Amino acid sequence: MLNAVIKSRLAATRALMSDQGLDAFLVSGPDNRRYLSGFTAREEVLHESCGSLLITRDEALLLTDFRYQEWAQAEVSEFDILIYQPGMGALFIEQLGGLPGGRLGFEPSYLSCGQYQRLTKAAAEASLQVEWVPTEGLVEGLREVKHPEEVLMVRQALTLTEKVFSEVAASLRPGLTEHQVAWEIERRLREGGAAGLAFSPIVAAGANSARPHHRPGDYPLQAGEPIIIDMG
């Protein structure tokens, strides 16, 4: 089932690439990478990369760090896995050299300025005629239409979120700190079966409730004061 879904997503991506006149598409966003390939590895820090996808009319490649080789091989079947060490620049340029054309789409929201400079410099030094085309929302548009299994997971996540919110709201009392409430949210979500949280829970009490994206701290809940909880 998963292989069929991945194949259909690849076909839809290539159709959009054709519409935009792209010969190749470099996918750097972690959520888009997972959506198109099934590879679940995720960056923990900005300067670390679990890899990128390079999609052409005829090829689908996952370029990844040697540390992720076994992980990728266990999860990815519709992409050829190419391993680089220590960086993907040389391998990327090698693959670009075989492009049938020169229009390369990339995700400007996910390809850092430093990565872009290194890759474009390497392409120029290799005398490759590449037109770098910033491409916004191509994969995100596909992701808006959910597969039935995705719909089921969304429903399960929503059911758990509502259950935990109700339980935590009923347990609130003066003296609990924002941090304690946030931890209770995370604990209950994970014990309820969540693989992870969409984002760190926001618990903002009293004057802190006026602060956008407040980070829970040691402020204790007070009777009669507002409290904002943002969770999922």
The percentage of residues in β strands lies in: 15-25%
Ends distance? 28 Å
What is the count of β-strands?
8
Mean pLDDT: 93
Poorly predicted residue ranges: none
State the helix count.
8
* Principal-axes shape call: elongated
Structural class by sheet pairing and helices:
alpha/beta
Largest sheet: 6 strands, mixed
Task: State Rg.
Answer: 22 Å
Oligomer: single chain
Within the largest sheet, what's the order of strands?
4-3-2-1-5-6
Helix content: 40-55%
Order of helices and strands: HEHEEHEHEHEHHHEE
What does this structure look like?
There is one protein chain. The protein contains eight helices and eight strands; from the N terminus they run αβαββαβαβαβαααββ. 42% of the residues lie in helices and 16% in strands. Helix 3 (69-75) links the parallel strand 3 (60-65) and strand 4 (80-84). It has helices at residues 2-19, 30-37, 69-75, 89-96, 113-125, 138-143, 148-171, 178-191, and strands spanning 24-27, 52-56, 60-65, 80-84, 103-106, 131-134, 202-205, 227-230. A six-stranded mixed beta sheet has the order 4-3-2-1-5-6, with helices on both faces. The chain has a two-stranded antiparallel sheet with strand order 7-8. The model has no long low-confidence stretch (mean pLDDT 93). It is an alpha/beta fold and 232 residues long. It is elongated.
Give structural attributes.
232 residues, alpha/beta, two-stranded antiparallel ribbon, 8 strands
Q: Quick summary of this structure?
A:
With 232 residues, the protein is of the alpha/beta class. It is built from eight helices and eight strands.
